[in-house]
Specification:
Elements lengths: L2 H17 L3 H12 L2 H24 L1 H7 L1 H23 L20 H13 L2 H14 L6 H26 L2 H9 L1 H25 L2
Length: about 210
């Protein structure tokens, strides 16, 4: 398959995957509403770079090892479930922001940019669904005859496209009217995201334990 047809196929499949709600979406949504655009953008960049982790192990053959070693993938799933449960529990503990409906631009967010970046990176990097997506992508859609340079281009594109998608969401969700509306019930929104993340964690844990 030549470069452009395969690239367009990869881009189309990736767009459908990245636009689907999941842990990445929940994190960006929570950070955008709770902490503002800078924190949400930092997390979005982390999510985008997390794509490169999946691309790297797919190109290095580690993805094949995960695919052919069930216990290793189950261990990976348990680690991912534990991390999602941790950040979900943090979200459930959110309380009302008394006397503060909006944040001033000259005030630092409640969490640091490095922390939000790291959360985005780990959330995507430890997402077993993303692992399965890239295993399928490199095993089925991308031809084995595709040059390594093309595969690297695909990976860089997906990382940039993912970051841009969540950056766009960050700007939309932090528009004054939208954010002001959500901040009135911001702590309930945090708790809802916590429930979503815990549900995802339990689903991953159940799938991992069921396979034993």
């Amino acid at each position: 398959m030549s470069f452009w047809p395969e690239f367009l196929l990869v881009a189309s499949v990736h767009f459908v995957a990245v636009a689907s709600p999941g842990p990445d979406f929940a994190i960006v949504l929570r950070y955008a509403v709770r902490y503002g655009v800078k924190v949400a953008l930092s997390a979005s960049i982390g999510i985008g770079l997390g794509i490169l982790l999946h691309v790297a192990y797919s190109l290095l053959g580690i993805g094949l090892l995960l695919q052919t070693t069930p216990w290793l993938f189950q261990l990976f799933s348990v680690c991912a479930a534990s991390y999602l449960a941790y950040i979900g529990t943090q979200a459930l503990r959110s309380g009302p922001q008394l006397g503060r409906e909006t944040e001033q631009d000259d005030k630092l967010p409640a969490i640091g940019l490095w922390q939000s970046f790291r959360t985005g990176l780990l959330t995507n990097g430890l997402n077993p669904k993303a692992t399965l997506f890239f295993l399928a992508l490199f095993a089925v859609i991308i031809s084995p005859q595709t040059p390594l340079s093309f595969k690297i281009i695909y990976g860089v594109y997906m990382a940039i496209a993912t970051a841009l998608w969540f950056c766009l969401l960050s700007f939309v969700l932090t528009r004054q009217k939208i954010r002001s509306f959500l901040l009135h019930q911001g702590y309930w929104f945090d708790r809802l995201m916590g429930v979503v993340l815990l549900a995802l964690a339990m689903q991953l844990l159940y799938s991992a334990l069921k396979a034993f």
